[in-house]
């Protein structure tokens, strides 16, 4: 296992540095717009632009990468992303920053497709799980640590954007110097959303719900903490607690879902997200319990996407899973675009409690649907369930089958 990770170390270093440099930008943008008195709905629209760019990029960049290669594409995506990071310091305007977030999302999609297809190409059946686990640790670890760069802008407002651009630029170095062979991106057979819903209604609605919940949090979680009267250090710590909780609980919940009816685990996670969201919505002043609840929120909310993907795969053939994974990523993205707009409307109408109040309503809708499917749907036995894998909520590249030379097909 260690040898397999050493072979892809340059790609893992790259995603860690990229996420350290870019993972805090959504938080920083929300914090700065809030400090400037921007309405919550405008902040939500700016955040939604990032997820819109991510969605468009996921559809468009594979052809570009196939045409010019992974290294050139990666260098181009990161260079434009770095320039966009510096452009935030030119002027603080919500429409201008919305355009920059759209560009960021598109470029980030290119980065994800490049690195994830590359890592998948290096993975064999024996090493795939360990490489995927290392990738997710690097991705979320970089994102969690990057939150603390928020504290650098107290006296020099442009400094966090400069640091982000520096880190993004440095991430190119290990990739352009790598000796790893570039893979070929193969197009998967399309699998319509109607087919996907017919095969697994809970999988589709669960992924959509998860996208809305996490999209709303990423857009406005920092605003929520600030409006409770906390500073940048507390914003960074709260966001890191949410991300850290998401990393820690995915594997235990996944293993639990392998042993029992996966729908029951999904319902349980949604119920806990609902309960935690209601608890957070009741806070009107800063308290230490916020950080514990944040970790619980992240732990169970982050687990929902891979659980719903695993549940969908239990109802699909191996050939269908590849095409279906694209549909699930796009469904999640649709929820993530809607989430900031719904959450910001809640804050606009009900104040600081409106964010997690709105998330609680979304979670309640998800729980209701999941319970209904548990009653009317046919149970998949534990023996027939596939093994859980903690997929990232980025691109479907890890669902692409291994190359012919390794699987003997």
Topology:
Blueprint: H1 2-7, H2 9-22, H3 25-35, H4 40-68, H5 70-87, H6 94-122, H7 128-146, H8 159-170, H9 172-176, H10 193-199, H11 201-227, H12 232-259, H13 262-281, H14 289-313, H15 318-350, H16 354-376, H17 404-407
Measured between the Cα atoms of the first and last residue, the distance is 24 Å
Report the strand count.
0
Mean pLDDT, to the nearest integer, reads 85
Shape: globular
Give the % helix. Answer: over 70%
For the sheet with most strands, the description reads: none
Structural class: mainly alpha
Q: Helices and strands, in N-to-C order? A: HHHHHHHHHHHHHHHHH
Radius of gyration equals 20 Å
Overview features:
mainly alpha; 0% strand; disordered C terminus
Compact description:
With 409 residues, the protein is an all-alpha fold. The protein has helices at residues 2-7, 9-22, 25-35, 40-68, 70-87, 94-122, 128-146, 159-170, 172-176, 193-199, 201-227, 232-259, 262-281, 289-313, 318-350, 354-376, 404-407.
Structure write-up:
The chain is mostly helical and 409 residues long. The chain has 17 helices and no strands. The chain has helices spanning 2-7, 9-22, 25-35, 40-68, 70-87, 94-122, 128-146, 159-170, 172-176, 193-199, 201-227, 232-259, 262-281, 289-313, 318-350, 354-376, 404-407. Helix 4 (40-68) crosses helix 6 and helix 11 runs antiparallel to helix 14. The protein is globular. The two termini are 24 Å apart. Residues 402-409 have low confidence and may be disordered.
